[in-house]
Amino acid sequence: MTMSLATVRLDEVELPLVEPFETSFGVEHNRRFLLVRVATKAGLEGWGECVAASDPLYSSESVATARWMISERLVPILFRLPEPTPEAFLRKAARYRGHPMAKAAVELALQDLRAQEAGRSLSKVLGGHRKRVQVGVSVGIQASVPRLVERVGLYLEAGYGRIKLKVRPGWDARPVAAVRREYPDVELWVDANQAYPTRASAQIRAWAEKNEVAQVEQPFAERAIRAHADLARNARFRVCLDESIVDESSLEDALGARALTSLNVKVARVGGLGIGRTLARRAARAGVPSWMGGMLESGVGRAHNIALASTPPFVLSSDLSASDRYYHEDITDPPFVLGPGSTIEVPRGPGIGVEVNERVLRKHRRLSRTYRP
Ligand code: OSB
Ligand code: MG
Questions:
Q1: How far apart are CA 210 and CA 192, in angstroms?
Q2: DSSP letter, residue 347
Q3: Residue 344 has what pLDDT?
C-alpha cells in the first residue's frame, strides 16, 4: 500500500491546566505544546503531540526548538519519503542529533496514520493485549503539607490507586510522612526530577524506607548512573530512571550497572513509540518492569501513551490520569475517564481511537502552519 502525504500541519496550542503543576524544576499554569497532523491524499489523518515545554527545564528541548526542528528539518524529510512509515522517517531523521521530542511528535503522527490505514487500533498494531491500563496520579509540589494531604485525599476518593509525589530538597521527608500517616495503605511513589546531589543518598534512603515508599524516581542527575546504582543496592524500594534513559545504549549501560529496578518510558524522551516499545522489552528481559510516564499530555499524546501502555512489558501503573485531572476542556473526544480499579479503557477505534475536536483546538491555538510537498 502506498500512502502519499498531502499536507503536514503544525499547530501551537496553549491549554490552561486545572491547577498549576509544580516540580523540582518549576511551575506550569498553562501547557504550551505542538500538535502535528499528517494528512494523506486519500483523506486519512494522523496526529502526534510534541511535549516540549516553553522552557528547557525537564530536558534541553523547548517549544521553540521543536518548532524549528519540525518545520525546517523534519517536514522536508517527510515529503521526500517514498513511503511515510514511522521507521523510514526515523532512519532519515537519525542524521540529526538529539531533538527526540520533535522526532517523536512526527513518529507518533505516522504511527496513528498507519494504524488508521490498516483500520486497526494503535494498541492492536503495537501488540497491545489489555482492554484497560492501570494508572496512578502524579501530584505536584503544593503550597503546604495540609494542602498536599487534602489533594491526595481527593485523588484517592476519585479512585486513583497509586500516588506519585513530586519531591525536592526541602519538600520530601515531611510531606511524604504526612501522606503516609493519613493514608497508611496507599501505594506511594516519589519523583525528584534530578533535584538531589549524590551526597543526599543516605537521607533519601532513610525517609523513603521509613515511610514505605515503593519507588524513588530519578533523584540524581541524568548522567549520575553510579549514584543511582548505589541507591538501588539493597534498597527496600525500586529505583526508577526517567531522564537518564534516552536510547538503547543508555538503557544498556544503566542495566549493566544495576542502576534501575524500574523504567519510566516516555515516547517523547526516547524519540517515538517504536523505540519506547523496544526499550520496555529490553528492560523486561533483564527483569526490570516498565510503566508509561506522562508529560501532562493533551488527549492526543495521552491516547498514544495508553496504546503503548496496553502492551505486555508495561506492568506497573502509569502516569496516565483522566482528562479532567489536567484540563477543563481537552482537545479530543471523548474524554478519558477513570474506570474501576484505577484503570483507563484503551480506545478501540482505528488509530489513536479518539477524535480531535477542531472547535476546541481552534479556541486554544496560538499558531498554525500548513506545509505542502
Ligand atoms: O518527571 O514524570 C515527570 C510532568 C512534567 C515533566 C516531568 C514529569 C511530569 C509528570 C507528569 O510527572 C505526569 C502526568 O502527565 O500525569
Ligand atoms: Mg519523572
A1: 18
A2: P
A3: 98
Cell of 267: 515516547
DSSP element (H, E) containing 92: helix 86-93
The ligand 1 atom nearest the CA atom of 243:
1
Please tell me which residue in 92, 164, 166, 363 is annotated as part of the active site: 166
3-state secondary structure of 103: helix
- Residue 145 CA to residue 139 CA, distance in Å, equals 12
- What is the Cα gyration radius of the chain? 20
Instruction: Report which secondary-structure segment, H or E, holds 150.
Output: helix 145-158
Residue 363's pLDDT band (cuts 50, 70, 90): very high
As a whole number of angstroms, the distance between CA 85 and CA 263 comes to 27
Any idea which ligand is nearest the CA of 216?
Answer: 2
Q: Which atom of ligand 1 is nearest to the CA of 297?
A: 15
CA of 15 to the centre of ligand 2 (A): 21
pLDDT at 3: 78
Looking from the CA of residue 242, the nearest atom of ligand 1 is: 1
| Distance, CA of 174 to CA of 159 (rounded, Å) | 25
Ligand number, closest to the Cα atom of 25: 1
The CA 39 to ligand 1 mean position distance, Å, reads 30
pLDDT tens-place string over residues 311-346: 999 999 999 999 999 999 999 999 999 999 999 999
Task: Give the pLDDT confidence of 258-305 residue by residue, as tens digits.
Answer: 999 999 999 999 999 999 999 999 999 999 999 999 999 999 999 999
Q: Is 111 in the pocket of ligand 1 (CB under 6 A)?
A: no
**What is the average pLDDT score of the chain?**
97
Given 124, 164, 266, 363, the catalytic residue: 266
Cell 532512519, residue located: 91
Instruction: Using DSSP, state whether 135 is helix, strand or coil.
Output: strand
Helix (H, G, I), strand (E, B) or coil at 60: coil
pLDDT above 70 for 2:
no
pLDDT tens digits along 202-222:
999 999 999 999 999 999 999
Distance of CA 60 to the CA centre of its chain: 16
Q: Measure 356 CA to ligand 2 centroid, in angstroms.
A: 27
- Express each pLDDT in 125-140 by its tens digit: 999 999 999 999 999 9
Contacts of residue 202, defined as CB under 8 A and 6 or more positions apart, other chains included, come to none
Q: Is 166 a catalytic residue?
A: yes
